[in-house]
Amino acid sequence: MSLRLSTVILPYRRWHEGARAAWERAEQLGFHTAYTYDHLSWRSFRDGPWFGAIPTLTAAAAATERLRLGTLVTSPNFRHPVTLAKELISLDDISGGRVTLGIGAGGTGFDATALGQDPWTPRERADRFAEFVPLLDRLLTEDTVTHEGRYYSAYEARDIPGCVQRPRLPFAVAATGPRGLKLAARYGQAWVTTGDPKLYETGTPEQSVDALRGQIGKLSEACEGAGRDIAELDKVLLTGFTPDRGRPQASLDAFVDFAGRHRDLGFTEIVVHWPIPDSDFAADEKVFERIAMEAPAQLA
Fold it and tell me: For the whole model, what pTM was predicted?
């Protein structure tokens, strides 16, 4: 299988002041999917403009025709499965079945406390995620759902007519721990990783490759336990969080070398950030566009 190249467009610009143009250009450049972050705010962007993921993707769906769209990633930090399911079914309908839900357990950033709650412990995040994903799966595949759980409830929740994509839109599950990997193996059509965060500051690219190889090995074990072939899942690497940082986007050759090494590990999709000046995602836009247009053929 050829390696797919996708992008993630952060929702920090007004729609008519550059955001719409980026989504349209992503389709013109031939990206497989354009994702956006699903946060209430994020890191250094906290005190500046930041727009909602679902409305942004809805607008992007209306502005494009072929480009797949998705979140990278949605989490339980401020989402409830019942309301999220309704929004996703609507978005899938508006886009004509072009939506992928990237979903993860969430973290300790601004989303974790924006609703006034104390941050959840890692165990509680994992517990909530383990309940959130199966319930969301039911809500997207069944007309009526009633569920009484420890964290989430649904009472005769109606989700008619369901997704355009059948049996539901695909889940891309972000996970590195054993419980998350089990969810990916059971419910995911794809698996997402950003690498090993412990290596970001002081690790080497070689150590990162070894860590990713180990993650794929654990995913394979989880798939075996779920009675699935790991080949059934796409493996997605969101770049920018490994020790390589922005260096793969320094040139076309540098990116092809980086992507080729990760393709050889088993990754089927590489996601690069749309360039943002004066940020961790700064990059030469001409080089970025050349990567988008030329790299897939070299990685086929």
Answer: 0.97
